[in-house]
Amino acid sequence: MKILYTRDRIAARVTEMGAEITEFYRGCDLTVVALMTGGLYFAADLTRAIKLSSLKLDSVAIASYQDDRSSEKLNFRSHLKLDPTGRDILIVDEVLDTGITLRGVRDFLLAHGANRVRSAVMVEKDILRPKRGLESADWVGFYTGPHYLVGYGLDSEELYRNLPYIATLDN
Known about the structure:
This protein is an alpha/beta fold. Helices cover 24% and strands 33% of the residues. The protein has a domain at 9-60 and 83-145: Rossmann fold, CATH 3.40.50. The chain has helices spanning 7-25, 40-49, 100-111, and strands at 2-5, 30-36, 56-66, 72-76, 88-96, 116-125, 139-144, 149-150, 166-168. The strands form 2 sheets. The protein has a 6-stranded mixed β-sheet with strand order 4-3-2-5-6-7. Strands 1-9-8 form a 3-stranded antiparallel β-sheet. α1 (7-25) crosses α2 (40-49). It is globular and about 45 Å long. Keywords: Glycosyltransferase, Transferase. This is Hypoxanthine-guanine phosphoribosyltransferase. It holds the Pfam family Pribosyltran.
């Protein structure tokens, strides 16, 4: 295991992102939607760094799977408590990999009446994404290569999520 981003570096970047997002949404009511389970750690830290008194927090649990045609599908395991209609929503997740989950959630929220939907991720992998995936997040903590990452919400078979840093399991 090789540490890529330390606890201190993550904390500093989250603070910077929180300031940027605060400025962008100043004067607006913002709803943050955390993608569970991986986005939990980042969403908790980021929402504390966003200095808006009107911020609301919700979450959704999603799993992706391959169907019979090898097409990735999304399975909503839990749903929003808040109605997205008319809301400015910031989707928060730990990583942008294929972009299929983020795009699927964004499209779902827009189809259900959200006003504006943007995204923030802790790590965006510099890889070629499928056409049906979200190309890039609006706010990104760090850019990295196609490493297999763990820590700060990122897991390997549900292990390592609780590490306070982000590391690679690549050799």
